[in-house]
Design a protein that fits this description.
about 475 residues, alpha/beta, Rossmann fold, 2 domains, five-stranded mixed sheet, four-stranded parallel sheet, 20 helices, about 15% strand, elongated
Length: about 475
């Protein structure tokens, strides 16, 4: 069976051009399934259009989820907020303004008069500025009469497709022709309901829907590139997740809110403990980690950050079944150390028993022939107590015994020859909130915060895409 392109149609079945029906063998059309009164809101400039926007977005999102290749949004007035819609959708919405502008350029000389029947709302916007640059735009003298013919008690919007309302619109078109308009653009969606009648009475009136459909089907429409969205697998642990997100915000070169990175976070503290599995054979967290990643993927994340060192022992298996990359914090950390301190540096690693037992840092370091030193058992217990103990970081403490224990472990690892020290559990940097080095006997040893390295990597990635 031939794989047809899918095109989503928003605007109501009753105003669709016959052009759509003639292409049913070439395309698979997805139609809006329900008629909603929001599509017929009276478009005066003072009107609150929020409910209409939400309705159109809901339908468009449904089409995106249905794998539509593009969306046709009927009604010129709806294109006032196309930029707002497009910013939240990956599927491109074909611009009716671009379609009409393309047609006018091909059929009218520069400087020609264009008659435009549109709402007060559109007139007050800058949507038609491309036309105004090259053509003389003429609006009806009797704008209130036009709005009444469309939205009045006996208007086209109420189903009156014959009689006084149609006569009023026809007279307005005739007035525009008398003023020298080469063509007349019916820029209110409901006018498509009487397009045939208007064209029979005045050939200058365009069939806007047909022009739009032909443009949409003939044009090459590139997929819309949405802003980068970072997926954060959180809850491993919860405080470390918040700390990581704060670092992403801090490292982003932003002048305003809108310059920051989109993030979607799955804070899932119910993921089984990674160290308990790796060291003691506890519950396997693989499915929980994978399911969380899949939810982030479904939410439109472009990449995933996992602010948990130990969880990276499971990344290789998980990555194979994902469509988006997991940004490897361990690889980024080792790359950072090499870039800052060279390939001859001796690395000290303070981490959970699970991270050390899995040797995930060792495997990365071995690619560059780097030496990794870990604490002796006595001091490894201090590291674990500082993280998991009753007064440890995971219990909400950042001072007291946990700080004393980790300081002792840092001194120990330096005594063993470490020249830099990786704080290889995402809770450990919380014990050194303002410190980037550890001074012992007058010698300063750099403290490496993998979550900060990861945050910078995520920011770089967001800028590069």
């Amino acid at each position: 069976m031939e794989n047809k392109k899918k095109i989503g149609i928003i605007g109501g079945l009753d105003i669709l051009s016959d052009e759509v029906l003639t292409h049913q063998d070439e395309y698979h059309f997805l139609f809006e399934q329900q008629s909603d009164i929001q599509m017929g809101i009276k478009l005066h400039s003072k009107e609150d259009m929020r409910s209409k926007k939400l309705h159109i977005y809901t339908v468009a999102k449904r089409f995106e989820d249905g794998q539509a290749d593009r969306i046709l949004l009927f009604g010129l007035d709806n294109h006032i907020f196309i930029k707002e819609l497009q910013a939240e959708l990956a599927v491109p919405i074909v611009s009716m303004v671009d379609a009409l502008h393309s047609y006018v350029k091909a059929n009218c000389r520069k400087g020609a008069k264009l008659g435009i029947l549109t709402s007060d709302f559109v007139k007050a916007s800058d949507m038609l500025k491309d036309f105004e640059a090259d053509y003389e735009i003429v609006y009806p003298d009797k704008q209130e009469l036009l709005m009444d013919a469309v939205y009045g008690e006996k208007g086209i919007n109420k189903g009156f497709l014959e009689g006084e309302a149609v006569q009023q619109v026809s007279q307005i078109c005739e007035d525009l022709t008398q003023q020298g308009c080469a063509i007349i653009i019916p820029g209110i969606g409901e006018l498509s309901l009487i397009a045939d009648t208007l064209q029979r009475r005045n050939p200058a009136v365009l069939d806007v829907n047909t022009i739009y459909v032909e443009y949409a089907l003939d044009s090459i429409v590139n997929p819309y590139t949405k802003p980068f969205k970072l997926g954060v697998l959180g809850g491993v642990g919860p405080s470390a997740t918040v700390d990581f997100m704060s670092k992403v915000i801090r490292e982003t070169p932003a002048q305003r809110d809108q310059d920051h990175i989109k993030m979607v976070v799955e804070q899932n503290p119910q993921i089984p403990d990674r160290t308990a599995n790796l060291v003691y054979g506890g519950e396997d967290p693989t499915i929980a980690l994978f399911a969380t990643c899949k939810r982030l993927e479904a939410e439109g994340a472009d990449a995933i950050a996992i602010p948990c060192n130990t969880a990276h022992a499971f990344v290789e298996d998980i990555q194979q079944s994902l469509k988006i990359p997991i940004i490897n914090m361990l690889e980024a950390t080792v790359d950072h150390i090499i870039a800052q301190y060279g390939k001859d540096i001796v690395i000290g690693l303070l981490a959970t028993d699970g991270t050390i037992a899995s040797r995930v840092y060792h495997h990365v370091a071995e690619r560059y022939s780097l030496q990794v030193i870990t604490p002796d058992p006595e001091y490894q217990k201090k590291v674990m107590d500082s993280i998991y103990g009753p007064c440890g970081v995971k219990a909400g403490y950042t001072t007291g015994p946990c700080k004393t224990d980790i300081d002792g472990a840092v001194r120990h690892i330096i005594d063993k020859g470490a020249q830099v020290c990786i704080l290889g559990c995402t809770e450990l940097p919380l014990l050194f909130p303002h410190e980037t080095s550890f001074v012992i006997d007058g010698v300063s040893i750099p403290l490496i915060d993998p979550t900060l390295v990861l945050a910078k990597k995520c920011v770089q990635l967001s800028i590069s895409v």
